Amino acid sequence: MKAKSSFLLKLLVVQCLVVICVAQDFDFFYLVQQISDLISKMQKEWPTLACPSGDGYSFWEHEWEKHGTCSESVLDEHGYFKAGLVLKENSNLLQALTSAGINPDDGSYSLESIKDAIKETVGYEPWIECNRDANGNRQLYQVYLCVDTSGKNFIECPVFPHGSCASSVRFPTF
Questions:
Q1: By CB count within 10 A, which of 22, 90, 96, 168 is most buried?
Q2: Which H or E element spans position 109?
């Protein structure tokens, strides 16, 4: 009986894995179908900055799975990415930073001045994530802002993760 139940368990695991893999492939292609009219704009405005850089599809799938599904009851995939593009266009964080004299010029800026410049533009405090450059210096990596489930309005973030930036942050060129 043990051999039979072991075989059955393996069969069930294989069936589950096949279903998961098929579902993931289907979801990926479904996502691409849903956002096909946005792809060229997303490649320009919402690229993956990972090295080596790809075409963005895996990155966008990750963004939907991790963040977009939070608003799934209100926004489908197309609505989520469209809302993200509109928010980016309307808030223009790079313009907010450069207007405050904070430029992507490999210079160092105070973390507070970066946060203040962004808060001035969007009305809410961002969470800033830093990583280290090749020389071990802390540099600006990502800016996090919270958005309501409609995807239209910034909101106060309920919690910020533990900080990864020093009081002075390098803003690398890109």
A1: 96
A2: strand 107-110
- Tell me the three state secondary structure of residue 143: strand
pLDDT given for residue 4 in this prediction: 37
Cα–Cα distance for residue pair 126/146, rounded to 1 Å: 8
The pTM for the full model equals 0.71
Instruction: Quote the CA–CA distance of 47 and 41 in Å, as a whole number.
Output: 9
Q: How confident is the model at residue 13 (pLDDT cuts 50, 70, 90)?
A: very low
| Rg of the chain (C-alpha set) | 21
Q: Three-state SS string across 54-94, please?
A: CCCHHHHHHHHHHCHHHHCCCCCHHHHHHHHHHHHHHHCHH
β-bridge partners, 131: 139
DSSP assignment string, 152-168: S-EE--S--PPP---SE
